[in-house]
Amino acid sequence: MSIRNTGGASPRDRSARRTKRLTTGAMFAALALIFSYIEFLIPINIGIPGIKLGFANLVIIIALYEMDFRYALAINLVRIGLSGLLFSGVFAMLYSLAGGLTSLLVMALLRRTGRFSIIGVSMAAGVAHNFGQLIVAALVIENAKMFIYFPVLVFSGMAAGIGIGILAAVLDRKVPKQLFR
């Protein structure tokens, strides 16, 4: 017979903690969806489709840093799915999924090294997001010439990532940690 280490917490305490994390995750998913909608309303028209500010990624990076990868992934998937169904359409959801998963993977890997600030992680995620979307665009259009846009997308991803990273660094210091525990 094995004895499971419960950390001294009663079943009621563990249940309350799980419920709190679930509701925090749901709140983050709703916030990310709201940010996606706001971004949907702000067109950025510089001749290259798909350039966005990445407001929803602010929520994802905070979730990654304060909760864990699984919560950040779940929040990201809920946001991408609902945003695609409500605002941008199912086809655009494919691009969002590629960008969102690529950027989250890069964020998780860089954070795990401990060598990058939240701003550096966010900047790399912005570039990764654009790269993921560009790969899908090249596959859908069946034209590798899409990669001619990559330098512009690197710059826009870096700029947006730095901006989101600065906001994330400020929020990470200001938001009470007990919200996530």
From TrEMBL:
Give the transmembrane ranges. 21-38, 44-65, 77-98, 118-141, 148-171
Q: Which UniProt keywords apply?
A: Membrane, Transmembrane, Transmembrane helix
State the superkingdom: Bacteria
Keyword hit for Transmembrane helix? yes
InterPro entries with a match to the protein in the record: Hpre_diP_synt_I, Hpre_diP_synth_I
Q: What is this protein called?
A: Heptaprenyl diphosphate synthase
